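Hey, sorry to bother you again with one of my protein questions. I've been staring at a protein lately and its backbone has me curious. I owe you a coffee for this, so here goes:
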Amino acid sequence: MKGNHPFGAVLVHGGEVVLMAENTVKTSGDQTRHAELNLVTEAQRSYPRQYIVECTLYTSTAPCPMCAYAIWEAGITRVVYGVTYEAFARVVTGGAPFIPIEEIYRLLRTPAEIEGGVMEEEGVRVYAHWPKNR
């Protein structure tokens, strides 16, 4: 284990995983290196925008506002996440809320297909392995 936070993301195009990314906050020393942001950065380096727009982003936990905006900027409108904002807040942040990705897309007037809570129970279990000195 590298000691990073337990988050991951994959980019899927036509049913095929084309990119995978993990959270690298601890190993990079950069608080912005969330899995989704790492994934979007690599996608933009590797593929033309039109290809990215056709993709679905899957992520282990509901994206934070920073990541949600980066996902939107990349043109991705299909997002599936595991652990919901409510479960994350209850288990990890002690109730501190986030602005949901659904609200960010609504405010930016962008139609999107967003589904959350997929395999949430399994996703929450992963937090037991999160380093306590986060």
Observations:
- The chain is about 40% helix and 20% strand.
- Residues 35-46 form the longest helix (12 residues).
- The first strand starts at residue 8 and ends at 13.
